[in-house]
Amino acid sequence: MCNLYRMTAPAVAVAGLFRATSNTSPNFAAEIYPGYLGLVVADGMVRAMNWGFPLVLKSKKTGAPLKPKPVNNTREDKLHTGFWVDSFRKRRCLIPVTAWAEAEGAKGAMTRTWYSLPDQDVFAVAGVWRPTAEWGDCYSMVMVNGCEQMADVHDRMPTILAQEHWDRWTNGDPDEAFALCRVYDPPLIVYRTSEPWFKRTSPPPASQTPPPSATLL
């Protein structure tokens, strides 16, 4: 499960790498958290969207709707279920990523461990997106089983797509896209830090109030 990632390349560089158009200069932070804005490539365009589909639950006491929570990750085996299936069939996207982080260590003293690719400064992670009434256009990251290098930290990881598979993910039929949801076997760069996990160095845009927590479906 990924609840933090970096994307340090500017939108214009992302547009060039992904051969997409970029008509705006989206305001996004270098470190992206659930409920914050991040860059995606959707329908051939570089766009800023909210990371996480809104999940609206009801209070057990009153039955009233609670504040939505962002569902920022989805397991690949859930893509054909009701919450995700329409987006998976119709609205798949690429998420540019520089590195992603996982929490490592004892509860209350967890630190950030970063994962990246040795041969790519920016790589693509599989995503799905949809318009929402709560937060506008939102995206979620598709997760698969973790590779061996991650076994001691987490059992899930983002779906990393090779460049030759980018078009198949976004424009192929659902069966072709689903076949790309597999464990990434090549070596990763693993960078363990002493940074505390619960630290937010980049505030969201003034117009955006991040939800209090994230979840996985």
Radius of gyration over C-alpha positions, nearest whole angstrom: 17 Å
CATH class: Alpha Beta
Number of helices: 4
Give the low-confidence spans.
202-213
Tally of individual domains: 1
Broad shape: globular
Strand count = 15
Q: From the coordinates shown, what is the CATH architecture?
A: Alpha-Beta Complex
Task: Decide which structural class fits the backbone.
Answer: mainly beta
Task: Describe the structure concisely for a colleague.
With 217 residues, the protein is mainly β. It has helices at 11-17, 85-90, 166-171, 174-178; strands at residues 5-6, 31-32, 37-42, 45-51, 53-55, 69-75, 92-97, 99-104, 111-116, 123-132, 136-145, 156-158, 160-161, 189-196, 215-216.
Explain how this protein is built.
The chain has a single domain, classed as hypothetical protein yedk fold, CATH 3.90.1680. 11% of the residues lie in helices and 37% in strands. It is built from four helices and 15 strands. Strands 3, 4, 5, 6, 7, 10, 11, 12, 13 and 15 form a ten-stranded mixed beta sheet that branches. The protein has a five-stranded antiparallel beta sheet with strand order 2-1-8-9-14, with no helix packed on it. The longest helix is centred in the N-terminal third of the chain and has 7 residues. 36% of the residues are buried.
SSE inventory with pairings:
Blueprint lengths: L4 E2 L4 H7 L13 E2 L4 E6 L2 E7 L1 E3 L13 E7 L9 H6 L1 E6 L1 E6 L6 E6 L6 E10 L3 E10 L10 E3 L1 E2 L4 H6 L2 H5 L10 E8 L18 E2 L1
Key attributes of the depicted protein:
4 helices, ten-stranded mixed β-sheet, mainly beta, 37% strand, 15 strands, hypothetical protein yedk fold
